[in-house]
Amino acid sequence: MSVSDGLADRDGVLRVLSAHLASAWASFDHPRPVEPEADPRLLERLGASLPPWPSDLQATLNDAVRILDASVSPSRPLFLAYVGSSGLETSVLASALAAAYDTNLATAAGAADLLDQQAVRWVAEFVGFPIGEGHFTSGGQVSNLTALLAAREQALPGSRENGVAGHRATVYCSEEAHHSIVRAVEAAGLGRRALRRIATDPQRRMRADALADALARDRADGCTPVAVVATAGTTLTGAVDPLDAIADVCERENVWLHIDGAYGLPAAATTAAGHWFSGLDRADSATIDAHKWLGMQKSCSVILMHRRGALRAAFGHEERYMLHEEDTANPVDRTFEYSRPFRSLRLWLSMRVHGAAQFRAWIESTLANSARLAAAVRAHPQFELLDEPMLSTVCFRHVPAGLPADQLNAHNERLARAIQQDGRIYLAPAALDDAVCLRVCFVNFRTTPDDVDAVLTVASELGNVLNV
Ligand SMILES: Cc1ncc(COP(=O)(O)O)c(C=O)c1O
């Protein structure tokens, strides 16, 4: 493949792409530690300034692959940190196609808009959400912000134009909610003090009675509640708030209910965990990240709205620099973003090729993985389960015999780093109240029961060495 006259030749791009994809996918089966420092020449090149003249393409691509190999990538079956993804190949294919076409979604885009809407309906149907409208966004952060902006306009009509000065707007979420809610409240101009963090029960779920009390107090105080954000799958432990009880409160108080299911919502489609999501159908809006538990590459999130019209009320615009017909629905009248990648093609292609039953089976298998690890931790004399998993996240710690309790946190933090340096599995430490734990989140459809068993094998092998 050459770039000598400026533009790359397409046959060359195809050949190079397929060779690199093949070696990338093969490399995922050979875990290695993430250590950019181990390659000083690479680090030196990463500090170089903008090249004025062409560089050799193959050498540059080789560097790109080395950089990717030395970066945190969740595609490996034993990547168990944060909330990863499976990186489905069908999604890679759709991403490449979408990039080649570079469809313009910043205006009515023809069939792409219909596909976008079909994919939104499929996601809603998969999890059991009564869909009015929705669209794809860059991630849970933007989906949550989108919902909050729609809720703000409903609670305080005209706030788009007038702002919220003169109103004491409030938003409610649990102590365990993701920080994206804080940031969404800030970005929506409500001010961080508008956010009420509601206490949780021993399962780390929002207490509906405490929510009702907070709403009553605020109403009596002259505040305007804008939204309640329930979390369906908290980031730390995978707790699902009691959606039905929260929906009761929201109905009584006539407050918008948004469900942040960025991580957990796909589990609503399963037999094993579906019962936790009772009440989902009563929400005004819900976030689901396809780049977490639906196997897509980042970034690919969906905001689902129960009623039609709320998005247009929040985002409709009247620009006249590009003429479009008055009554023609322009998709960007319902989105915060103008130009954006054709994200829905990934999920549409993957859902069509694999089918809903396969997705359901995959998600069930990750739930079985967390149940398997939790059982192994319970049965192991040197490990302690710190939280009973509701979904696919397991928080546990190594408790070697004879180690004083006040050294457990430092020990588990060092153990997590040792596991990362070892490279066979990748997990990150987390803080559960005052306890440092090893946190494992199963969302990769390729993780096998043998992989699950490797977690305690590796952790006890490294943990016991740390301790001598
Ligand atoms: C519950 C929850 N909400 C929102 C987010 C933010 O999602 P994103 O990174 O896609 O913006 C996360 C990320 O982990 C999350 O776990």
TrEMBL record:
Domain of life of the source: Bacteria
Q: Which residues does this entry mark as bearing N6-(pyridoxal phosphate)lysine?
A: K292
Query: Which species is this record about?
Result: Cryptosporangium phraense
**InterPro entries for the chain:** Aromatic_deC (IPR010977), PyrdxlP-dep_de-COase (IPR002129), PyrdxlP-dep_Trfase (IPR015424), PyrdxlP-dep_Trfase_major (IPR015421), PyrdxlP-dep_Trfase_small (IPR015422)
Could you state a single Gene Ontology molecular function term?
aromatic-L-amino-acid decarboxylase activity
Record-level GO BP terms = amino acid metabolic process; carboxylic acid metabolic process
Essential cofactor(s): pyridoxal 5'-phosphate
The family database entries (Gene3D superfamilies) matched by this protein are listed as: Aspartate Aminotransferase, domain 1 (3.90.1150.10), Type I PLP-dependent aspartate aminotransferase-like (Major domain) (3.40.640.10)
Its keywords, alphabetically, are: Aminotransferase, Decarboxylase, Lyase, Pyridoxal phosphate, Transferase
Q: Which family does it belong to?
A: Belongs to the group II decarboxylase family.
Q: Which residues form a coiled coil?
A: none
Does Transferase appear among the keywords? yes
| Presence of the UniProt keyword Transferase in the record | yes
**Protein name, please?**
Aminotransferase class V-fold PLP-dependent enzyme
